[in-house]
Amino acid sequence: MTYELKGSGKSALNIDGARVSLRTKGIIAFIVVILYVVVIGVTLAQQRATLRATVEQQRNMYQVEEALGRLNSAMAYAILNVNEAYSTPNSRATADTIALDIGAVQAGLQGLSERYPLMRQWVVRLDHSSAMIRAEWGNKRLVELREHLHELVTRLDDVTSEVRNRQQALTEDFRSVYDSITLTSVVMGLAGALIFGGVVIWFFSLMVRDIRKLQARATEVVTGYRGMPIEITRHDELGALMESVNNMQSELRERERQLEIARQQRFHQEKMAAIGSLAATIAHEVNNPIAAISGVAEAIQDQRISNMCTAERCRPELILEQTRRISQITRQLAEMTTPYSPEPQLLDLNALLRRTCGFIRYDRRFGNIEFNLDLDSGMPAINAVADHLTQVLMNLLINAADASRDIVGREPSIGVATRSSSGEVVLVVADNGCGMDAPTMARAFDEAFTTKPPGHGSGIGLFMCKSLIEAEGGRIELDSTPGHGTRVSVYLPRPATRA
């Protein structure tokens, strides 16, 4: 036996506009990983750019230091020649030689002037001193030149200290940036691995949990579980599978309900057929002696009329009354058990109610219960299945009798009434029994719910009544007050009138 699953009709990728497939989730996870790698790459690229800038500055500082070294060498050689010329008049260090030395110093200063603009002033001063020496050779000019050179040496010492301090700072910056790059790589790599690994573990843990829950529920459904549906906690293919299992469970439950209703109907029909067969046999066997007894009683009555029977206790009318009663009972049995068509047909609802109430009175549960029939004489015919209405009415009457069984302080009674209104007819069965509280009334139409003790009811009665009435296009309503009784109203549609 196969069952069609009635799903939502939407794909697993988009149910209620919020379903995301596992493939899409995988793509999203891949994109997130790529974006995270890009973020790491951009961060490291920025830090590497800073590191490259630091290295470039260090290279510049090394070039400056190298230029300062050459300049200091030229300065030392120039000062040495100036001192030699000052102390040794006949020295080979002539004015032209000193001018060449000054030119070498000026060339070194020109190389540093781009970074240290004040060096241009020293170039001008040395150029002036060199010109003065060429123009006027003597110790006076040599002393002035030597003072200028010593002053320049002092300035170059300051520049050298500044360059060394800058080199040290750049070295510290290089180490800091390098350590930052290393730390960033390690931390972001570990953080990404931990986060991604944690998300993967969490995702697959939830998936395994849901798969196991789904597996357990599928096993329960196969073994007969028909309770609450499984909670859908996902919005992907696995969530769609959960929904399909719920739909399968719902379809199986509905199918089993329909099978139970069909079984109850078949049981009712078989029971009524058995009663009908028994009633026919009893009627056949009983009617013959009843006819004989009735004939004898009529003969006695005729003799009494003609004064041929003088006994004071000769009362044939009592015999005739009881024979008519027996005949009525057998006729009611025959009418009640007459098979009806399983298809809807026009019915006289009042006649069906009279037959059913007359038949069920013989049940011992109704022995001390008063029946009150209030049937609308203008009730139109309705289009329904007679067996369905008979079964509904018998269930409602039996429930009313059970509810009125143990009441104290008042005589139990059951009222059956019909009314006709625009578009529908109403059948009401009311009792003055124990009634129901709100929680009980809320579950009264649930399948397999009953307040009767074990062995006195299966809980299928009202559920089946509701199903049968809804199958006829009607509805059933319940109103009950604890301690006062219950009123069941059945609404059935009137057949459409032909123009």
What are its keywords?
single chain; alpha+beta; Heat Shock Protein 90; two-stranded antiparallel sheet; disordered N terminus
What does this structure look like?
The chain has a five-stranded mixed beta sheet. A two-stranded antiparallel ribbon has the order 1-3. The two termini are 46 Å apart. The radius of gyration is 58 Å and the shape is rod-shaped. Helix content is 65%, strand content 9%. It folds into three domains: 22-209; 259-339; 340-499, Histidine kinase-like ATPase, C-terminal domain (Heat Shock Protein 90, 2-Layer Sandwich). The protein has helices spanning 22-87, 95-113, 119-135, 139-222, 237-305, 316-336, 349-360, 386-403, 438-442, 461-471, and strands spanning 345-347, 370-374, 382-384, 413-421, 424-431, 475-481, 485-493. It has ten helices and seven strands. With 499 residues, the protein is of the alpha+beta class.
Summarize the structure.
With 499 residues, this protein is α+β, with helices and mostly antiparallel strands. The protein is 65% helix and 9% strand.
Distance between the termini: 46 Å
Fraction of residues in helices?
55-70%
- What is the strand tally? 7
Helix/strand order: HHHHHHEHEEHEEHHEE
**Strands ordered across the widest β-sheet:** 2-4-5-7-6
Shape by Cα distribution: rod-shaped
Radius of gyration: 58 Å
Please state roughly what percent of the residues sit in beta strands, choosing from under 5%, 5-15%, 15-25%, 25-35%, 35-45% or over 45%.
5-15%
Low-pLDDT segments: 1-17
Class by alpha and beta content = alpha+beta
Number of domains: 3
If helices are DSSP runs of H or I spanning 4 or more residues, what is the number of helices?
10
Sketch the major β-sheet: 5 strands, mixed
